[in-house]
Amino acid sequence: MSNILGSAIHIALLVAATTAHTISSTPPRIAQESSDHLLRSQEKEKNAAQCPAGKGVLHGPVLFNRIGLLGVASTRYAAASITVLEVVARLLSVFPSSLPSRAILPILLPSPASGDSLISAPEWPQKLLTDVFSPIFLLAVFSIFVGFTIRRKCFAEMGRFFSFTHTTLEGHQLVRSGPYGVVRHPSYTGEVFVRGGMILLLLAPTGYARSCGALQAYQMVTSDELAGALQAILFASVRVAVTFYVTWISFNSSYLIWRAPKEDASLREAFGKQWEEYAKEVPYRFIPYIA
């Protein structure tokens, strides 16, 4: 019973963390509409400098911005897909003798090849039930929730001016309240917490990607050719999803560090002395007294 309760709590936290990741990585509707409007208008004008004055400006090439938005959306789906696989595997592992478990678990969570296993085959379906509250898992969930809280507060403070692209909208205002009174780019800080936490979840030793063997070097075996083919496709998909996520987030985090001063420059140009006063009051971009 303790295993069932522990697994249930683990699943609840996992789903909540992934949901928080998805929400914090999804542009607010009104902000997305503003970005889409600028993307469409600047595609017609071909150049931001040709856009009508006062109608808003999307900084940077349209194609680059579209690729960025597509990458962000793709990471949401990649993380959510692996979470779904882990939830299903954990639920089935609670009752390994049931008919659905006997049919599906050998594909989702196959036994490792003889001699290469770190855990004996009869115990293998229970592996996902062990150490459900590992320090890495708890740290990952905590990081995601902290980042989610920061991001949601930034969404609320910025309102229609919040955007996943670098934009200066019509009637743009310099927001100085809430998290923006602590650092100048708190949404980036929140994003790093969210994305870093999700990487920990994806690579955790007791997470699905590691437990199923998709990221291990040893060879999985099965006597069923169809099951073997499904395993190969599944594990290849998991490897691609994890690799894509980690690679994109590594690039994106570096890009945010590069983009922050660019945004500061555009705000300085738009608000002049008002921004200079704000920069003196809030001198740090990401973390107070550090960066």
Automatic annotation (TrEMBL):
It comes from Sanghuangporus baumii. Keywords: Membrane, Signal, Transmembrane, Transmembrane helix. GO terms for biological process: sterol biosynthetic process. GO terms for molecular function: oxidoreductase activity, acting on the CH-CH group of donors, NAD or NADP as acceptor; transferase activity. This is Protein-S-isoprenylcysteine O-methyltransferase. Residues 1-20 form the signal peptide. Pfam families: ERG4_ERG24. InterPro entries: ERG24_DHCR-like. Residues 26-52 are annotated as: Disordered.
